[in-house]
């Protein structure tokens, strides 16, 4: 049997019906709700850039672990855009995609969570 880890990076809501950033984590399946839905084909198109982001973001000093396989970094939408526009991500198609989606879809002054989750 071959097992492999699925790593996902997305923008999550700070608080929703199933998740609250301010409450203690480490519960099974306690992960943020997506701020916007995944687009059709997004997973296959951006897979390798997403995996690179996952490993770069896991353990980030401004983040916290909320579940055994979920790490989040809280930032405003404008900070998220700036974060993904850093030079180290300039060639990462998925980081560029997320920056564009956040800029187009989310309130720049509202806080969201860069979410790294594995399953």
Short descriptors:
31% helix, 3 helices, single chain, alpha+beta, 23% strand, 4 strands, 4-stranded antiparallel sheet
Condensed summary:
The protein is built from three helices and four strands, in the order E-H-E-E-H-H-E. By secondary structure, the chain is α+β, with helices and mostly antiparallel strands.
> Which regions are unreliable across 5 or more consecutive residues at pLDDT < 50?
none
Strand content: 15-25%
Could you say how many structural domains there are in total? 1
Rough outline: globular
Radius of gyration computed on alpha carbons: 14 Å
Determine the N-to-C terminus distance: 17 Å
Strand order of the largest sheet: 1-4-3-2
Mean pLDDT: 85
Percent in helix: 25-40%
Order of helices and strands: EHEEHHE
Helix count, DSSP H or I runs of 4 or more residues: 3
Taking the sheet with the most strands, its summary is: 4 strands, antiparallel
Helix/sheet category: alpha+beta
Q: Based on DSSP secondary structure assignment, what is the total number of beta strands?
A: 4
């Amino acid at each position: 049997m071959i097992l492999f880890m699925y790593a996902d990076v997305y923008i999550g809501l700070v608080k929703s019906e199933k998740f609250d950033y301010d409450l203690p984590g480490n519960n099974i399946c306690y992960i943020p709700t997506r701020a916007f839905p995944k687009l059709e084909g997004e997973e296959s198109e951006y897979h390798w850039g997403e995996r690179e982001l996952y490993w770069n973001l896991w353990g980030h000093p401004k983040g916290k672990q909320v579940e055994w396989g979920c790490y989040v970094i809280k930032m405003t939408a404008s900070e998220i855009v700036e974060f993904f526009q850093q030079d180290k991500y300039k060639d990462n198609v998925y980081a560029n995609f997320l920056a564009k989606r956040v800029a187009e879809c989310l309130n720049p002054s509202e806080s969201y969570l860069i979410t790294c989750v594995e399953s």
